[in-house]
Amino acid sequence: MGSARGMAAFVHAIAHIEWNAINLAWDAVWRFDAMPVAYYGDWASVAGEEALHFSMLRNRLGELGYEYGDFEAHGGLWTMAQSTAGDVLDRMALVPRVLEARGLDVTPALIARLRRFGDEKTAAVLEVILRDEIGHVEIGSRWFHHLCEERGLDAVTAFADALRRHFRGSIKPPVSRDLRRRAGFTEQELALLDDLSQK
Length: 199
Known about the structure:
Blueprint: H1 4-31, H2 37-63, H3 76-83, H4 88-100, H5 102-116, H6 120-151, H7 155-166, H8 177-182, H9 187-197
Helix pairs in contact: 1-2, 1-4, 2-6, 4-6, 4-7, 5-6
């Protein structure tokens, strides 16, 4: 973040995450049938908020003199979407509750860092994103727990099993216990994440 180009690359990386999140939300609507009507309303709402986030970040990129597409981007989020395409429970466990929830862990520190660099505009955008992402992760948590209850599964065991099947990597600290509690994580699930983050 120490140069104008570095700041633009950072904003571009976040914009790319939000672009993927739009597609992930609509994929959750399209791919998984026989879910309650409220499920589809929840994920359509998420798609709308992710589109707003992307637009805000694209506008910020423009203010910095760049456009979306000016930097390379990774496909990690979509790779996870493909990996979890066969089971809505795995999708709810991994995409909102691992990948998107990572934003709950790291965004507060990013906002503070942006303010130290004097970039109040980008910090304000990330504050909106963080507020909304708590709700998005909570939606994932709610439907994950709904599916566990429906299938007679212990949620902590099911979460651990989904991580083992699909997650290649480690849960890196910090883990924001407060924000994840607000997003529907139980104490047992947080303890599991703590164990994984220490390995």
